[in-house]
Request: fold
Amino acid sequence: MSRLVLTDRRARNAGLLTCARCGCSITAERKKGRYTYYRCTGFHGSCGNAYIREERLSLLLGDVVQRVQIPAEIAEWISERLRDDDQMAEQARQKATAQLTKRRNEIRTKLDRGYEDYLDAKISEAFWSRKSGEWESELVTIEADLGRQAQPISASQMKGEKILELAKQAGFLYKSQSTAEQRRLLDTVLSNCTYDRGTLCPTYNMPFDLLSQGNETGRMAGPTGLEPATSGVTGRRSNQLNYSPAWANLKVKSLK
Reply:
């Protein structure tokens, strides 16, 4: 029976997997004109890895995507933290911009006055050259710092919100979308994925690795689930989820 190795354009999961046994690519081929199987290319010789039907592989990949899906309440908690952190960062950006602008104006004033003093022979040419050079150099540094401060923080928040929105419904999206959109979702979530005789071992892109880790450990909330907490600012009591460090550090590590 002849084999037909499919091209990347025709095989929905081509180029997505590598062989866990020998490190070669997992390629697709069609049998009997209608069934698609995936197998190790065997470029380094036979490694003993097994074929897998495309339908079975799609189910396994759906499980891989499901591992990064998080409950809505956790996504909302992280989203609130994103907004709070970005608000503080934006305030710090505005404060730094104001300080830099003030210093720039002060130096420009010094340059104007120094030049007038030089013209009026109140200071020597050597002194004017030295001080004006120092001030001009500081102005260059300040302008560069102002350029770095020019972009608002909102872009990073938007990125984080999109990731969280995807994570809230990752499993549903994979099951309900077209094969092309499924592949796009897999490319977004996965950095690499190895296959070994019916088992997938995914390596997730950040921050999906942390989402998977939180789900795997089952430590999204503490042993008591909801625990009462008192606000140090308002004095009001509220119910607060006791999240594990993996969830608490999610934004700091990856969402910005």
Summary: Residues 1-69+170-205 form one domain. The first strand starts at residue 4 and ends at 5.
